[in-house]
Amino acid sequence: MNDRSILETHAVQGSILIAGVGASNGLGAAIARRFAAGGYPIAIAGRNAEKLAATAAELAADGAKVAHVVGDASTAVDTARFVEAAERLAPLAMAVHNAGSNRPATFLKVSEQRFEEHWREHALGGFHLAQAAIPALLKRGGGTLVFTGASGSLRGKANYAPFAAAKAALRALAQSVAREFGPQGIHVGHVVVDGGIEGDRLLSIRPQLKDDRGPDGLLNIAAIADAYWVLHHQHRSAWTLELDLRPWAESF
């Protein structure tokens, strides 16, 4: 099947929803740019109104049909609004859960509140987005639901207990949803991002890291976004449930 027939099969006019978009130089925005370049209308959602509006303006300036919604992906009310915004553009074709932060700390100093915050952002957020998006995808006759994971999805490192617990829960959620709704035409994917992402979030904290890691030692955000594009356009006879991405020099 050539690229054109794949695109026709997946109905380019369907909308793409990315929950967890902030700065323009971030993974959520990169995913939005990749799909906008492919002709899809885009709905982006995030908690930072200023960053979200700036990213939406950049996408629109490049010719994208874009809507943006400020809200918290860990709440059912807001994820429902995200899906509604995407559906106003076109029937939902794909939803991406890319929300959640990572705040490492020594385990004995982790508060119950901090542990629960990680769970809410990652696991509960993924749950709410899935419950909001799946009915729309079923109504359309199928589509794609992708969750952004991390190395913490597979193994817990020292000082990362809340993050690892939350990401492992999100991974299990993705597996369960895939087994229930794959036979109904919904391609569920879980992307394990195993390494540092070359974006504003990481480099604002550790600006020297890019030089320390050397050429292509961090994950390029556009390259990660290409993987999401591929997942959405896979033929259903060969769907990927879990995809892990890491720099060529990253140990694993």
TrEMBL record:
Q: Which Gene3D superfamilies does the record match to this protein? A: NAD(P)-binding Rossmann-like Domain
Family annotation (Pfam families): adh_short
Task: Cite the SUPFAM superfamilies for this sequence.
Answer: NAD(P)-binding Rossmann-fold domains
Q: Which PANTHER family match?
A: OXIDOREDUCTASE, SHORT CHAIN DEHYDROGENASE/REDUCTASE FAMILY (AFU_ORTHOLOGUE AFUA_5G14000), OXIDOREDUCTASE, SHORT CHAIN DEHYDROGENASE_REDUCTASE FAMILY (AFU_ORTHOLOGUE AFUA_5G14000)
Q: Mind telling me what this protein is named?
A: SDR family NAD(P)-dependent oxidoreductase
Q: Which organism is it from?
A: Bradyrhizobium jicamae
The lineage is: Bacteria, Pseudomonadati, Pseudomonadota, Alphaproteobacteria, Hyphomicrobiales
